[in-house]
Amino acid sequence: MSWSMTASEVPETGQKPPLKVLLCSPRGFCAGVVRAIDTVELALSRYGAPVYVRHEIVHNRYVVESLKAKGAVFVEELDEIPETGAPVIFSAHGVPKSIPAQAQKRNFFALDATCPLVTKVHREAEIHHKRGREIVLIGHAGHPEVVGTIGQLPEGAITLVQSVDEVTAFAPRDPANLAYVTQTTLSVDDTADIVAALKTRFPQIHGPHKEDICYATTNRQEVVKKVAPMVEAMVVVGSPNSSNTQRLKEVAERAGCPRAALVNRAQEIDWSVFGSIASLGITAGASAPEVLVEEVIGAFAERYTVSVETVTTADENMFFPLPRVLRGNEAAE
Ligand code: SF4
Which of 92, 212, 239, 276 counts the highest number of beta carbons within 10 A? Predict the structure, then answer.
């Protein structure tokens, strides 16, 4: 099969080749992302601009730019914010304990958009710590969720491991008194390997019933695993700094899809790769809006006669209430 068709070789309208699109379901926004974006939007409509947001509210450029246009001001650290009575929102990924403390010291009106499933991991870590256990966090160094989870406890209480090799190298203070928690947006399969390695080395280690990977991450990977072997190529809509989105691309490749690409927008599609295929899978990371999926399908429809079939492996009806101060008639819509 040739992958070298260029845009100029695209057949004229009326002669478009057929393309079968398998649309993954579930895909796109999860309940934590909806809650975080709604928090910013409602804060804007209730208190007016500006509303300050520490870090990208969710890892998606389109979402961030749309909120910027409505008056949200994104900063990386609180010291970038002037003295203000405006709301200061913490992103869905969670923050170290030092951040709400800083906000309180400066009398900021703080709103916490941390996903409740991330908060759950914070609480698990605190409980293990109270019980005197040394904690292993499975996750990716530098990701804001990992920084936030480590920052729930005093320095040294949590050790990050990123791979089976790092489990082998890990030297705990007391091998009989350990616990683990995980980042919520990891590869289900990689994490299972790391957890198995931990349990082999430290049979008494405490951990969650399953792992802490959230329902949305799990469900999006599951459907990609099903669709990937059935298609010649897969487009994952989302931003490269989104952990769960990156994992979807990896899952597609490992499940046997010969061409997988992560794209923010339709204009990033490399037509030298996607210009001569007969079947395509499409999914979207948990922070990618559906409008961008539609844009991608539209771009393919300009070059192909597209037929779309949805492949569903799970139904989702998760809902997280807004931060308490924003709840009310408007919030209940
Ligand atoms: S991906 Fe999971 S943990 Fe992250 S915001 Fe969505 S539901 Fe919450």
Answer: 92
